[in-house]
User: What shape does this take?
Amino acid sequence: MHTKTLLELAQGLRSGDFSSVELTRSFLNRIKQYQNLNAYITVTEEAALQNAEAADARLANGTAEMLTGIPIAQKDIFCTLGVKTTCGSKMLDNFTAPYNATVVEKLNQAGAVMLGKLNMDEFAMGSSNETSYYGAVKNPWNINTVPGGSSGGSAAAVAARLAVCATGTDTGGSIRQPAALCGITGLKPTYGRVSRYGMIAYASSLDQGGPMNRSAEDAAILLQAMAGFDEKDSTSVDLPVPNYRAGLNNSLAGLKIGLPKEFFGEGLNGGMAATLETAINEFSKLGAEIKEISMPALKLAIPAYYVIAPAECSANLSRFDGVRYGYRCENPVDLTDLYTRSRGEGFGKEVKRRILIGTYALSAGYYDAYYIKAQKIRRLISDDFKNALSEVDVLMGPVTPTTAFGIGEKIDNPIEMYLSDIYTIAINLAGVPALSVPAGFVAGMPVGLQIIGNYFAEDKLLNIAHQYQQVTDWHLHTPKGFE
Ligand code: GLN
Assistant: This one.
């Protein structure tokens, strides 16, 4: 059962080939069998089986939706009522959420069966899932390599078939980069498309939740259930949600694809470049027109992001003070001791580094030189996207400069780690949607192709990825040992 796509499973549940309880049990067994990947932080076995029973009842009485009875998993950044919600941090190791994130609520309402909470980089800060308090996640394609981050648990779980699909969040690449490194399909929607309510904040002007699936068709189904206006999130956008599956079969004839030359320069591994070229050729065969373009501000994305994201995180993470919830140090002698030791002991190294950078960039005297400058660069980057996307329909490029790197290889060199986000970060600064689609392998490791669209063009991105998946089978490969 675990080899089937979401759509096939939904059909199987309807035709009575298996029940949701059977399906859920088979995934729970796989989670136990492949614990070595460290993809899950919490497994909610009992609740999952109860919800699967409820889903079977809905399937029997005709009130089932597409996701009813489908075993999914949530990134541990989404608050789940009554279930431990850690955000990958010691700070929240003792935290049980008192409410559901809107995304969780929506998927529960749709009847999806949550198997558990997925491992992630601490507070979503990282590109390798090595900053998690719960330890590194392993890439199922080679367990000595990273799955990417910060949604590394989500990507590894979907690739190894430890969940049919998963949620992720993407502040600077955290859906697309792990999707690429684990050979799955991951979509970061337009900022505002998916509610951030109950999604623990990292950098609020960049964070966006999205679907992580095997195929674009499955991503269309999951996004359908996640997207939409939410009055509890003031940045959520009140626009109708299109029927994503309805547009999947549109022809790509005449589609204008732009290739930003800044995406294909030095720094992109040779094998990756050749693989992407082959992938892009497929689109010519499907009738698309390819054009090289230039986006000169892209090269400024990393420095701008690594000022803006830490600045926002330093403000967001000030709420973890040992007073209201989360970790509290033992026997504080006074209030200052309570604050400093709770934060000093509760946060990991990378989170502290970001808080320090952010606090510095926001402090009087440096605010104009760093924060305001970074905001100006952000505008230049948005303008680059605006101009490019008025000339072409979508942009294509790499997701990552290399395939998955070794566990431990970059963790002590933050600059090198930050550089692995070079192709994903600008998209968040502009707020446009982008997806990563499996496009081949280099030395046995998956390669992702990034497709970037205009605001709210998720339907177009899914259509393009789906058409590509009709003529290629990269998204159907399963890592050895997980068949
Ligand atoms: N790797 C980037 C960072 O560490 C992006 C993380 C994310 O998208 N959550 O900030």
About this structure: The chain has a mean pLDDT of 97. The pocket of glutamine is lined by residues 124-127, 150, 170-174, 202, 309, 421 (CB under 6 Å).
